[in-house]
UniProtKB/TrEMBL annotation:
Pfam families hit by this protein: Acyl-CoA_dh_1, Acyl-CoA_dh_M, Acyl-CoA_dh_N
Organism this protein belongs to: Halovibrio salipaludis
Required co-factors: FAD
Protein name, entry field: Acyl-CoA dehydrogenase
Transcription in keyword set: no
Length: 388
């Protein structure tokens, strides 16, 4: 990746924002289990940070994905993962399909205010009975003249309690599971939508995640993104950016764990000398930093190809898999060297240990990434390389 002065300026803008607006408040937001999302999003919107890659016609910066990646990486310096996660939902999970395939009217109504930060979005794919198996979801949108009538529910929806719209994946016909789905933008104040109290999570506690119910929710068909039945394909494309964002966002969070652990091990003495003087510890830190650099290289390579409009399904899946696995390894190893202090709830490494654990589960679990990689390697039983 060749970073320009513009990339570095963007990095600094994000870093300054995190240090000024997010980090001083993280402990309080983590305790409360939420943060003032509309206020923060409006401030991000004022700096154009919610529309880095989005079209200029709708208020975005019109830059390529490498700038998005730089921002995702820099948001990783946040003192709690929940706030960046919720920003990533807005920029890289619930709006990519809208920006790419949405109509002019949809973009005016939903994309423009998502970029300015006036509207908060969420992405509704997972259900109680369908997380990994996206094709098996049951929420349906039945045709009724110019409208759809939506019934069903969505589970684990980040930002839902504060969201103004949901980008919803629902069945719009009885066709085959990969051909019967559509992405529909549904305003969250539409009658028939209810949001359960936010879920009590292991980590990412400053972001809200909740179950959303749809009971005869009437929405105009003009809110459907693209042609009926193309929602599964669009969501799979949208997942590529979600996965790249997830990998990029972990890099600096993990580096932060290593740096803080080194600082702690310099101060903390056992048997008359600083912990860091133990070769087992300073070698381990060197190993972890090496692994983080490898994750960075993989993520940058995927990003470069994505910018060149190549298919990055395999590389993005590899980056997401590596980020999840390494996230568990780094946070676990670092926590160990903090001893009892590392086991305390508010310890920064213990918080990262809980936050980063999500990466192996959300947005496609490690095993789903392995399945995609195997499929593209041609090693899945019954599948040949190139089969769709
Ligand atoms: C904090 C949080 C935020 C989230 N935010 C959102 C959101 O905003 N929008 C949204 O739509 N969803 C969201 N999700 C849902 C998330 O994407 C799903 O939890 C995830 O896709 C896994 O689905 P599942 O929980 O149903 O696990 P399941 O599908 O039940 O799988 C359970 C486990 O089984 C294993 N597994 C599954 N399939 C296979 C297989 N074929 N082979 C081998 N092993 C397998 C995996 O280890 C997996 O973790 C969120 C989840 C969490 C925890």
């Amino acid at each position: 990746m060749q970073f320009t002065e513009e990339h570095q300026a963007l990095r600094k803008t994000v870093r300054d924002f995190v240090e000024k607006e997010i980090n001083p408040n993280c402990d309080e937001w983590e305790r409360e289990g939420r943060y003032p999302i509309h206020e923060i999003f409006r401030k991000l919107g004022d700096l154009s940070l919610l529309g880095i890659q989005k079209p200029e016609d709708y208020g975005g910066m019109g830059l390529d994905y490498s700038y998005n990646l730089v921002a995702a990486e820099e948001f990783g310096i946040a003192a709690a993962g929940g706030v960046p996660l919720s920003i990533g939902v807005q920029t890289d999970m619930c709006t990519p399909a809208l920006a790419r395939f949405g109509s002019t009217e949809q973009k005016e109504e939903f994309l423009r205010p998502a970029i300015t930060g006036e509207k908060v979005g969420c992405i509704g794919v997972s259900e109680v009975g369908a997380g990994s198996d996206v094709a098996g979801l049951k929420t349906n949108a039945k045709s009724d003249g110019d409208d759809y009538i939506i019934n069903g529910h969505k589970m684990w929806i980040t930002n839902a309690p504060s969201a103004d719209f949901i980008c919803l994946l629902a069945n719009t016909s009885d066709d085959k599971p990969h051909k019967n789905k559509s992405l529909i933008i549904v305003p969250m104040d539409t009658p028939g939508i209810s949001v359960a109290p936010h879920l009590d999570k292991l980590g990412m506690r400053s972001s809200e995640t909740a179950q959303v119910f749809f009971d005869d929710v009437r929405v105009p068909k003009r809110n459907r993104i693209g042609a009926e039945g193309t929602g599964f394909m669009m969501q799979m494309l949208q997942f590529q950016e979600e996965r790249l964002w997830g990998a990029a966002n972990v890099i600096k969070a993990l580096e932060g764990c290593v740096d803080k652990t080194i600082d702690y091990c310099r101060e903390r003495e056992t048997f008359g000398q600083p912990l860091i003087n133990n070769q087992a510890i300073h070698f381990r830190m060197a190993e972890l930093q090496t692994e983080i650099e490898a994750l960075r290289a993989l993520t940058y390579q995927a990003c470069e190809l994505h910018v060149a409009q190549k298919d990055v399904t395999q590389l993005a899946s590899m980056a997401k898999l590596k980020a999840g696995r390494l996230g568990r390894e780094v946070t676990d190893a670092c926590l160990q060297y903090w001893g009892g202090n590392g086991y305390m709830w508010d310890n920064p490494v213990s918080r990262a240990y809980r936050d980063v654990r999500l990466v192996s589960v959300g947005g496609g679990a490690d095993e789903i990434m392995l399945g995609i990689i195997c499929k593209l390697m041609g090693t899945l039983p019954g599948k040949q390389k190139g089969d769709s």
